[in-house]
Amino acid sequence: MSALTASQWIRRLGGRVVGGIGQIFGRPPAPRHGLVLPTATYAPWNHDPEFLEIYRVARENTLVDELRCFELWQLLAQTAQLEGAIVEVGVWRGGTGAILARQAANLPGSPTVYLCDTFRGVVKAGREDASYRNGEHSDTSLALVTDLLHRRLGLGTVRLLEGIFPDQTAGLITESRVRFCHIDVDVYQSAADILAWVWPRMPVGGLVVYDDYGFPRCDGITRHVDEQRTLADRVVIHNLNGHAVVLKTAG
């Protein structure tokens, strides 16, 4: 796929403007929020044939945009020298899990990718989560994700864990180390519980990537990430695409 033409770029930018306005004005804007439109134009995803191949299929099964999907693809590749499994919690219909599984196959030893979800929607919403009441994003199923990963894409070293993580399914992960964790659960307590399980098992250099950081509807995720900024064993990075990336710097 070649680079975007000028007209395609303008249409995509227009879509992001409309989407950003919807995020802000879907409910009364908070003082901490404003429309963010970076002007950098470097788009390496347009020149990565393997990523584009998997993304063309996966995009039908994810709410995560191309920029964040490519960041997952790139970051996971940079864990090649680390040991441990790959974990995603908050799978929905399997799109980002498929991208992670395809990249994991390129890593030495083809580490196992664990995709964890209730497949019944959001759980553990609480007072920190103004827009969630539990049960959102329940329009998925284990069978739907299995079909994407195995029948349509033929991905191998991936395991689907159905249930609340870590409460019900963490014991099914056999590896003692987790090199990479993608948290896409939308609410504070669920994200906090996942991190509490993952962090002690993560080697120095390991990565936790949070989706929905800075989104008005996911204020609990933003709070959870920001609470980590003063901790000495990590670096917290705010990416303007809607990700927060946490790098483990000390054991």
Total individual domains: 2
Q: What is the 3D shape?
A: globular
Order of helices and strands: HHHEHEHEEHEHEE
| Largest β sheet strand count, sense and barrel closure | 7 strands, mixed
If you consult CATH, what is the topology of the largest domain? Rossmann fold
Supply Rg. Answer: 18 Å
Q: Roughly what fraction of the amino acids lie in strands? A: 5-15%
| Mean pLDDT metric | 92
Q: Work out the helix count.
A: 7
Structural class: alpha/beta
Per CATH, the architecture of the largest domain is: 3-Layer(aba) Sandwich
* Total beta-strand segments: 7
What is the fourth-level CATH superfamily of the largest domain? Vaccinia Virus protein VP39
Report on the structure:
With 251 residues, the chain is of the alpha/beta class. It has two domains: 1-41; 52-248, 3-Layer(aba) Sandwich (Rossmann fold), CATH 3.40.50.150. It contains seven helices and seven strands, in the order H-H-H-E-H-E-H-E-E-H-E-H-E-E. A seven-stranded mixed β-sheet has the order 3-2-1-4-5-7-6, sandwiched between helices. Helix 2 (49-58) runs antiparallel to helix 4 (95-104) and helix 6 (188-198) runs parallel beside helix 7 (219-226). The protein is globular, with a radius of gyration of 18 Å. The mean pLDDT is 92.
Topology:
Blueprint: H1 6-25, H2 49-58, H3 66-77, E1 85-89, H4 95-104, E2 113-117, H5 142-152, E3 158-162, E4 178-183, H6 188-198, E5 207-210, H7 219-226, E6 234-239, E7 243-248
Parallel strand pairs: 1-2, 1-4, 2-3, 4-5
Antiparallel strand pairs: 5-7, 6-7
